[in-house]
Amino acid sequence: xxxxxxxxxxxxxxxxxxxxxxxxxxxxxxxxxxxxxxxxxxxxxxxxxxxxxxxxxxxxxxxxxxxxxxxxxxxxxxxxxxxxxxxxxxxxxxxxxxxxxxxxxxxxxxxxxxxxxxxxxxxxxxxxxxxxxxxxxxxxxxxxxxxxxxxxxxxxxxxxxxxxxxxxxxxxxxxxxxxxxxxxxxxxxxxxxxxxxxxxxxxxxxxxxxxxxxxxxxxxxxxxxxxxxxxxxxxxxxxxxxxxxxxxxxxxxxxxxxxxxxxxxxxxxxxxxxxxxxxxxxxxxxxxxxxxxxxxxxxxxxxxxxxxxxxxxxxxxxxxxxxxxxxxxxxxxxxxxxxxxxxxxxxxxxxxxxxxxxxxxxxxxxxxxxxxxxxxxxxxxxxxxxxxxxxxxxxxxxxxxxxxxxxxxxxxxxxxxxxxxxxxxxxxxxxxxxxxxxxxxxxxxxxxxxxxxxxxxxxxxxxxxxxxxxxxxxxxxxxxxxxxxxxxxxxxxxxxxxxxxxxxxxxxxxxxxxxxxxxxxxxxxxxxxxxxxxxxxxxxxxxxxxxxxxxxxxxxxxxxxxxxxxxxxxxxxxxxxxxxxx
Length: 582
Hints:
The protein is 3% helix and 55% strand. By secondary structure, the protein is mainly beta. The strands form 6 sheets. Strands 1, 3, 4, 6, 11, 12, 13 and 15 form an 8-stranded antiparallel beta sheet that branches. A hairpin with a 5-residue loop joins strand 25 and strand 26 (336-343).
């Protein structure tokens, strides 16, 4: 720690004494591929920057927050997108983008998103440098990219109004992150890494071009002209006179019922937990409200495979001094493995509510209605699991716990299986295999088979198993087609890149696909995934493994034919269920 302090003091001393050139302001919009430059034209703030192999590279692996600013003044009211190819050529894979810099000679009052390696995993971290130039994190998201990759990654930020959004390789990662600073300059940043930046674009962004990532997942969604009935599976205000009259089982710590709260009184020890003695079928949403009485460390347990210990289950709770919330799982030995964390406001003694939506293989987290994490993989997926409460090194009082499930109703229509397709008219090689439908053609193109069913408002779900031999394999649903097997004007949602992505869009009148958005998923080779669409008049929602990943997406047509879509087979579809409303 002393060495790091000395290093940083030395770095700040060197930088503060550096005579910086007067910036030559460039105009907005701006693009640069470095093919015609021999020397950097940017304002450098630490590091060793040069043009090499038609790219802007930073070669110093010893410093942190080494920056180069593009000296431009973007108006505060201007929405824009800033993106660049980022390629690591040495060091620890730490590099990314600066934006909304209020002064192009300092990190003070600016935003940042960059790659970061932690515990042999690659993350995106994002936040801002405050008035004192110290970094304040706003969150982080785990990537499925190997930390040692030398392939270029297309990193982008979209700045709109009071928030910004982050995209990686065209796929949204995080949306609606609050902006503290508006307008100003943009640039590049590295941390203990040699990084090459290329194909830089800073351009205006209209609201129609904004690519939003998955909104905070919920279990319930409105369906058709019917309704989505939330079922309360558990509602506990802790009014029982004694623990023996409840289903709560303390497994560690000192748990007491008192004055309408369930309190854990012991302040020494970690993961002091109580488990509710009932399992809940997925999908479900857990909401728990808590207050800290002494120290900070309260949270919730979910996805528990057993009722007597935390092994194999998940946890989300406050850590440190309360400025951070962490989430992850306990492995089969009971050791905690983190999956992510986020900076949050200090909880104090006020009431705060954790909300966790648990699907078949994924979960999401909110704190006081604010999204902390979406599309996180469950360590031990199961059709049902248990929940619990926990605290570490703190006295915590839980005010209430609620579990809600969902029962979708579409105009009283019944759900029926889809067991036939128009194989004779379909593109590709489709066949029935027992209760499954299989497409075996392996060429990397879209193959479509109509179901012979048309609809306007409906819910369709299916299990999808992709080929393990193709990194490009994909499959999904096409609907509102102009003909039984004609993709023109249809909307499409499918898995891609071997299951590591889900994306959606529509086909124009000529059958050309126009992408509208997507999310990144962790690839699960050989594992069946569930895709479900809820289609209403004008909009639709997308669920993966019963976790909502996109909501209220706009439709280009109001009705049409429904079909299956395969890319680079073989692909197996099974358990296809359709409920059509009128």
